[in-house]
Sequence to fold (1082 residues):
Amino acid sequence: MKGLPFTVYRLPIGLRSLCSHLVAALAIGLLSVSCRHDDVIFIPEHVDVARPELTSVRGFFLLNEGNMGTNKATIDYYNYASGRYTRNVFAFANPDVPKELGDVGNDLAIYGTRLYAVVNCSNKVDVMDRMSVRKIGQIDIPNCRNIRFHGRYAYVTSYAGPVQIDENYKQLGYVAKVDTATLEVVDRCIVGFQPDELEIVGDRIYVANSGGYMVPNYENTLSVIDLATFRETERVKIDINLQCVRGDNRGVLWVSSRGDYLDTPGRLYAYDTRKRRIVATLDVPVASMAMRGDSLYVVSSQWSEVNRTAGDVRYLIVNTATMQVVNDGFITDGTEDAIQRPYGIAVNPVTGDILIADARSYVTPGTLYCLKGDGTLLWQVRTGDIPAHFAFLGD
Amino acid sequence: MRHYSLLRTSCLLFLASCFALCFAQEGGQTLDSVYLEEVVVRAFKPYAEVIPSQRLEGKQLETLGGTGSVADAIRYFSGVQLKDYGGVGGIKTVDMRSMGSNHMGVFYDGLELGNAQNGQIDLSRFSLDNIEAIDLYNGQKSDILQPARDFGTSGSIYLQSRLPRFREGKRTNVNITLRTGSFGLFNPSVRFEQRLSQAVSLSASAEWMSAHGKYHFRYRKRFSDGTLAWDTTAVRRNGDVQALRVEAALHGTERGGRWTAQGYYYDSERGIPGAIVNNVWRNAQRQWDRNAFLQGNWQHRCSERLTTLVSAKVARDWMRYLNPDTTLLYVDNRFTQWEAYASGAAKYTLRDGWDASAAVDYRWNTLDATLANFARPTRHTVLTALATAATWRGLKAQASLLWTHVADRYSNRRGDELVAAHVKRLDRFTPAVIISYRPTTAADLTLRAFFKRAFRMPTFNDLYYTDIGNASLRPEMATQWNVGAQYQWYAATTGATGITAVKLTADAYHNRITDKIIAVPTGSSQYRWMMMNIGRVRITGIDLTAMLAVKPHRDLTLDATLNYTYQSARDRSDPSDTHDGGTYGGQIAYVPWHNGSVLGHAAWRWLELNYSFVYVGERYHTSANIPANHEQPWYTHDLALTASHALWKANWRLTLAVNNIFNQQYEVIQNYPMPGRNFKITLRCDF
Fold:
């Protein structure tokens, strides 16, 4: 091989060593790389966050939404008896389910012995055993949003009703009636455009129609469905772009409107289902809310399309008996400065501890803050992406 | 509709072939050496540029694996990450040295391919069929006679379409290629070249590509003890493509100069395969594109000292996006962009070895969309560049300063009503310095370094897209430092056996991105996004390449190229985000620490074998580097065998290619499964 030393011998010593160093660096680089191996089921991560606490509430589940297209909806569990927080319990409890829980979780509830997770972009409701989180089955409902229960049935709102063909594409929403024994959709009731939360008071279902796809022609009504006939009986006009609807123990519905982000601000309405009229209007734009006894805990902020900012976040308590804001800052120790984007709230029904889910930047893991009833921080822990919805596990 | 366009295309191709054949009869003669000029596949460019490019050209391009697009070739350059959404129709964009794909300029025959709407050039649209060479430059092309725009990118890719070359006594070249294989690929193309006069020649080419785009993919997970947890195989759907490309160009030479004038048209319909998530195994979104441009340039040597370059371009890009899925928000949007561009540049030789140049560009962009209350932006850009280059003994140096002036006009609308009109102006100066030094004449060793500042303008989508756009965005800045060395040696005589060529390069670099434009949630508690200038990234990396060519026997040549890149690309956006699962200091999304490639080539008389290997190491899909965000490494091996033969007065070439030989099931982007083993057959005929 005449050319073997590739004329390096003609080079000064420094250059020769430079060349050999280059080749050596290349070899080391190529050797330091790692190989692909089979994906392993995600092992839940346990974090001990607080001292054990024994009440009739054993724990709670937290549904992390995950961003659209990431398939990163996950369920975390906190066990009060051990003080241990466990991330991603679904994937571990159901290692045989392909692609885990799914894409964009939107609601979570426990009914009877079962845990229900509404997974919006996976077009289904997953039904699990509430103790083992083992999947029992699923209910396929396209673009499903929220869930409530009554008797042997589950009621689920969906955006994906029949399509109206006119010059503007329109699609009505519906409420699906699901037999919890067979997990079959047994009936559907057409409601308004893009229905979000629903609530059952007495023998009626109240559905918050948002019209969120119809900008600027938002919906402004609650649909009222008779439970017995499962037909819409009336529309109650409240305000545009409705979102949350929660019933208190006096038969009053607390309904939040998001406004149009321009001229009409979001508000909170009290609609008395017996008197069939609005009995209070509060200038409180609601981002999320949770009810315990006569207290409605509200995370309040208003997005404005005009100056493209959200006003300050406020943490309020509304007394549902007096229908007034009784506390305009229930966090008392400065924790509110650490919370970047409060996205979900829940209140322990027994201890009154407040849980606030911080979605942070939405693309990175969130943080869960647990505050004592007096508004001071008890503990905080990392969650999955976009923590949002809670379900307490009782005895 | 689809049938209509297939019919239309078939007719077009048929006509083009007939046209080509007629001419071929006239000038036809046996040509068993038509490939001669292409045999030197890795010709070293003479030492002209201060820092030479990475280059792929000629037959090597044809045999590279993948789907036959420019994107597949670019994977083999060092320092480059390809974002690939999979399959024939999936979007493929390029990121150089982790600066983000918006910092890349892609130039087609010397003029930039623009996309003022989103700044992304989908390289899967450009077929390798009509490409002669691809050059990749970190920083900028170190030439000083070029449009001002060429001084303004942080990294650039130059696509050179085939130039007509005629063998002595020949007036016409015709090339017909038919490609088929996996994914239902049917890809005929025809190219025709005619010498019109001593000084002017014509080239025209047309290509049709259709594919159903279906492929099997498999997801599988195991328990930590190795037993199978679940294992699912499914078919990737809605990845179909139909695309037509038609191009024509006139190339002329004159005393002391040359000119080209060309037209390009691309028309396609494709499915958008979408993310594979639980319970959703197919998607229904579709996209239509119609891109057309006319461009030309003229380079003329006015005197011994003065050379001028004039370029101009007009382009129209139309796109329709349809989401007919009734489980989602129905969307049917149309976007139309126009661009007009003109550039003048002059280079003056001050004295021997010292040149100076000036260039002025003007560009006009506009975008209209069928979106409610759309801002209908128009952008005027004036670019002025001054540059100088000097050579003194072994030292070469170049310095340039670019002044960018941008004026955006946009409006606030409610329906058709104009609420307010705005004008926003911006001026920026960005410098670059490039030097190289050859310490000894005994060996072809050069040391090199460059410093460059550049920025990317926020795109129309960043600024004005209904709901998420933010009109107050600033440009995103990139600062680059690079030091490196190159050593090359090649045999003085051709034909002798032994080592024929060696080339080694090493570069170390540090880049800083500030004011990075990223989508940020803005509502304190609602799911709202807005584009903001809040990102900061620090990138430190090393690029190494080694190339060796050997001729062990008179009839056998072997060569191999190795590329390796190490990158540490740290998210420095939010110093307070250092808690458990925080992003500060994390490796940014989809940038591996290690990646590399190997290209091997063997030629024996009429047979050639190409082997290519790509490796991309472990990554995270966000800068929160926690196990839940981890992405596995992936690597593919491709093999192609080519046989050439002269028959019936023509040269025939048959290539059989197997890509992803070991059928690796992998993802480049989370939830976008890539194809497993696939095949391709190419028959090419030249006469």
Observations:
- The first helix of chain B runs from residue 2 to 27.
- Chain B touches chain A through 84 residues (CB under 8 Å).
- The first strand of chain B starts at residue 54 and ends at 57.
- Confidence is low (pLDDT under 50) at residues 1-47 of chain B.
